[in-house]
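Request: How about a record?
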Amino acid sequence: MGRRPRAVRLAIPAAFVAVLTLVALWRVSGPVIPASGSATARPEPLEPLTQLAEVLADNSIGRRASLERVVVREIPSPRTLWIGTGDERVFAVLDPDVKNLSAVPVQVGSRLTLIGLVRAAPPEETAIRQWALDPATAKSARDSGTYLHVTEIRPD
């Protein structure tokens, strides 16, 4: 019996590779498109927090907040505020690049709309160093657990 032609010797492994490739492509299907029509279903973003009590909750860290008509209670340093009324008070830190529409004066007793992000309160030493706070205020801010990092101030 003679040798097989060279084309036959190469065709058998090539056919085997082609079959394996087709099986692999068949097993790896395209993305499943949900009924809504988009390829990736993303959860809806959460609405911004609008109440002072919501900002104080531990599960609010990382959420956006839009607090309207809040009263400025104290101004411990040029970048920090205590806001709220009665028993509800929230520590707020103004971003160095805070957007202050119409140059609203930030004074004790004024009412403002503050927009920002809720963050976890840092250790006391960090708050003293970064925000020029006295130790008692830094401890109070830490004890509150969260603070509002203000990126925009609007007049009321």
Q: What stands out?
A: Residues 6-27 form the longest helix (22 residues). The domain at 52-155 is CATH 2.40.50.140 (OB fold (Dihydrolipoamide Acetyltransferase, E2P)). The mean pLDDT is 86.
